[in-house]
TrEMBL record, chain A:
Keyword set includes Metal-binding: no
Protein family (similarity comment): Belongs to the RNase PH family.
One annotated Gene Ontology cellular component of this protein: exosome (RNase complex)
Domain Exoribonuclease phosphorolytic: 20-150, 153-218
Alphabetical keyword list: Cytoplasm, Exosome
Organism: Physcomitrium patens
Principal subcellular localization: cytoplasm
Location of the protein in the cell: Cytoplasm; Nucleus, Nucleolus
InterPro entries: ExoRNase_PH_dom1 (IPR001247), ExoRNase_PH_dom2 (IPR015847), ExoRNase_PH_dom2_sf (IPR036345), PNPase/RNase_PH_dom_sf (IPR027408), Ribosomal_Su5_D2-typ_SF (IPR020568), RNase_PH (IPR050080)
Transmembrane segments: none
The protein's name in its UniProt record: Uncharacterized protein
GO BP annotations, alphabetical order: gene expression; nuclear RNA surveillance; nuclear-transcribed mRNA catabolic process
Pfam families: RNase_PH (PF01138), RNase_PH_C (PF03725)
Length: 246, 475
């Protein structure tokens, strides 16, 4: 019953090498009416993030006098998985992920610059093929940048696992369900610090360290890509408004 | 930690001031379609305002869901609970185990406490045995507990949750944050790890950024913590097991000495500190040996010995190690009779004692010396021979040790009262120099402290993990 996740030649199920990430694709500003939005693809996983804010707090009871309130909502579209599954907003997994993603991004946002306001982040998974959490954080990060919200650093994320005694970067759904550990990391590239760190399944400390390292490397690669995309987007906007002379 | 009302599968854990109750229940259901031969385990959390006014009644808040999922991941993904053994009829009927966690008092670090409670509850839970029978071999017969002994769950390992809180720029970590620390912390990380050093889950849900090296450091501390926690957990479960076995056996009300044996599970951490207060008390030893007071009892048994040396003992106990002289040895007798010796004493009626141990002060001196030697962890004559001890004396000593072993295991009400007026004993084995003795005493002290030291070191002073009885106090 042992599925071969890494072939003897060193190729994975989809032909990648163990430390190879899936193809990345991102578009900024996909929802014009929102303050910020982004689409992020990691292989077959497609996620959309939309940011509204900063705006006044809807529920005055939750207003914070010295910083901004960050709310995040994670949801999976019913058509995102292989089998159509209608999930309610009260799905426990969605609740936990909303909390976790929100807290990860909050650590990056300079909330003290926007007291008594609220920033809403909505993340929607359009196509799920493993690593949805990572894609969500990446998309949300870009959306926040698009919305012009002051941040300490970009938050980038990547997942890694360990199957057939090999650390694998950026697992897809099949590899994820392989029973090995699934480690997701939320990383500040400039500060070189970890904001999010989640892992399940049993591993030894040595294995954990290896997988953590690989995930961090993957996150750094995503950071380079994200920064490039954002710069490109800014350049386009600037030239459109006539600020740049080509 | 005790079961409430002596029920199996119901455990209350107290971690500092935080109290959490976990209850395990099982029922027969249909399995998931894609897992036909596996039972299921589900964790549910209840954060009622009773525990903390900040909790809102109704739907579980995000925090409640997160807690439930952390515990769930720690148990499920790491395969701590064997779900295949919960299958009755493949594809048709399986046992569905549900763990309900109620927060009774929130004073911080709910995750760790809840995880412990869930584990203990799962360890103590017994499900009714059922067999497949009937005409078509498809009928399930559930045997009530009176007919057949309920059977426990198969648990492969114990994942212990250890939480750290981060302050400042993430370079300052604190273990086991309490409520006030949680309010001001920058972030937190929960590491679920078992005593074999395998990480079952890691949850750092955002918050202040931390470097990878800090994370690894936390991991190593967590590994050490998990080991000591597992010990504590196992001991508590053991006590419960023994209690359950007691309950099954109907006994004559006078024969209560068995209970004493069971409860003499020592808690070395507390012994030393508690002793300082208790020595002056002239309490009848082994009065109320419920697990809650287990600690006090051990010191009580010591106190009866040290009745006449109260003041000295109090003094000497306050100063730490390095002392000279035989008198301090005895004062240090904390490893004493509570440890590997089952001093079932003093509680049985005289009728249960067959013979009175012949005592005279000389014999007592020798026996005490030898007994102490025995209790120091089997000091054999070899050790003594390493010092300049004469041949005949050596023989004598080994004889005495043998006798002392018997002495130690025997009981007599006389021993407790009359023997102790002897007070500190200056060993007849004067050849052993006093420094060696005090070293030995130090040794015992340090031996009985290993659990204590790391615990004190890591915990921020105020909180120490304690397991206390729940609503089923046996006062």
């Amino acid at each position: 019953m042992a599925t071969e996740f890494v072939s003897p030649e060193g190729l994975r199920l989809d032909g990648r090498r163990p430390p190879e990430m899936r193809h990345l694709h991102a578009v900024v500003g996909v929802v014009p009416s929102a303050d910020g939005s982004a689409l992020f693809h990691m292989g077959n996983t497609q996620v959309m993030a939309v940011v509204y804010g900063p705006h006044e707090v809807h529920n005055k009871a939750h207003q914070l006098h010295d910083k901004a309130l960050v709310r995040c909502e994670y949801s999976m579209a019913a058509f995102s998985t292989g089998e159509r599954r209608r999930r309610g907003k009260t799905d426990r997994r969605a609740t936990e992920l909303s909390l976790v993603i929100g807290q990860t991004l909050e650590a990056a946002i300079m909330t003290h610059l926007l007291p008594r306001s609220q920033i809403d982040i909505y993340v929607q998974v359009l196509q799920a093929d493993g690593g949805t959490r990572a894609a969500c954080i990446n998309a949300a990060s870009m959306a926040l940048a698009d919305a012009g919200i002051p941040m300490r650093d970009l938050v980038v994320s990547c997942a890694a696992g360990y199957l057939n005694s090999t650390p694998l970067l950026d697992l897809n759904y099949q590899e994820d369900s392989g029973g090995g550990p699934d480690l997701v990391v939320g990383y500040f590239p400039k500060l070189e610090k970890l904001s999010l760190l989640q892992m399940d399944s049993k591993v030894s400390i040595e294995t954990f360290e290896k997988v953590l390292e690989l995930a961090t490397e993957g996150a750094k690669a995503v950071a380079t890509f994200t920064r490039e995309k954002l710069l490109e987007n800014t350049r386009t906007l600037a030239s459109a408004r006539g600020h740049l002379k080509i | 930690m005790a079961t409430s009302n002596g029920e199996d599968g119901s455990v209350e854990v107290q971690l500092g001031q935080t109290r959490v109750l976990a209850v395990v229940k099982g029922e027969i259901t249909q399995p998931y379609p894609d897992r036909g031969n596996e039972g299921s385990l589900a964790i549910f959390t209840e954060f009622s305002p009773m525990g903390d006014p900040a909790f809102e009644p109704g739907r579980p808040s995000e925090m409640a869901v997160e807690l439930g999922r952390i515990i769930d991941r720690g148990l499920r993904e790491s395969r701590a609970v064997d779900t295949e053994s919960l299958c009755i009829l493949s594809g048709r009927s399986v046992w569905s185990i549900r763990v309900d966690i109620h927060i009774l008092d929130n004073y911080g670090n709910l995750v760790d406490a809840a995880n412990l409670a869930a584990l203990a509850a799962l360890l103590s839970y017994r499900r009714p045995e059922c067999t497949v029978g009937g005409d078509d071999g498809q009928q399930i017969i559930v045997h009530p507990p009176e007919v057949r002994e309920p059977v426990g769950l198969i648990i492969h390992h114990l994942p212990i949750a250890v939480t750290f809180a981060f302050f400042g720029d993430g370079n300052f970590q604190v273990l086991d944050p309490n409520l006030k620390e949680e309010e001001v912390m920058g972030g937190r990380i929960t590491i679920t790890i078992n005593s074999q050093g395998e990480i079952c889950a890691v949850q750092k849900g955002g918050g202040v950024g931390v470097s990878a090296s800090e994370v690894m450091r936390c991991l190593r501390i967590a590994a050490a913590k998990a080991q000591s926690m597992t010990e504590t957990l196992k001991k508590a479960v053991e006590i419960h097991e023994i209690e359950r076995a007691q309950r099954k056996i109907r006994r004559h009300p006078n024969l209560q000495n068995q209970i004493d044996t069971a409860s003499s599970v020592p808690n070395p951490i507390k012994k030393i500190e508690v002793e300082m207060e208790e020595t002056s008390e002239d309490i009848e030893p082994k009065q109320a040996l419920d697990t809650e007071r287990g600690i006090k009892d051990l010191s009580m048994s010591d106190s009866s010995r040290m009745k006449s040396t109260e003041t000295e003992v109090a003094e000497t106990l306050t100063e730490k190690p390095s002392r000279a002289g035989g008198r301090d040895l005895f004062a240090g007798g904390e490893s004493a009779w509570g440890d590997d010796v089952k001093l079932t004493p003093l509680k049985g009626s005289p009728g249960t004692r067959s013979t009175l141990f012949p005592l005279d002060s000389d014999a007592l001196v020798e026996f005490d010396v030898a007994a102490r030697a025995v209790l120091r962890g089997g000091v054999s004559s070899q050790r003594m021979s390493s010092k300049l001890v004469s041949e005949p004396l050596q023989r004598q000593i080994s004889d005495q040790i043998a006798a002392a072993a018997v002495y130690a295991n025997q009981t007599s009400p006389l021993i407790s009262e009359d023997a102790r007026p002897l007070g500190p004993i200056f060993p007849r084995v004067g050849d052993m120099d006093s420094t060696e003795e005090s070293d030995a005493a130090l040794e015992t002290k340090s031996v009985s402290q290993p659990e204590g030291t790391p615990v004190n070191f890591y915990f921020s002073g105020k909180k120490k993990p304690k397991k206390r009885g729940g609503s089923g106090r046996q006062d």
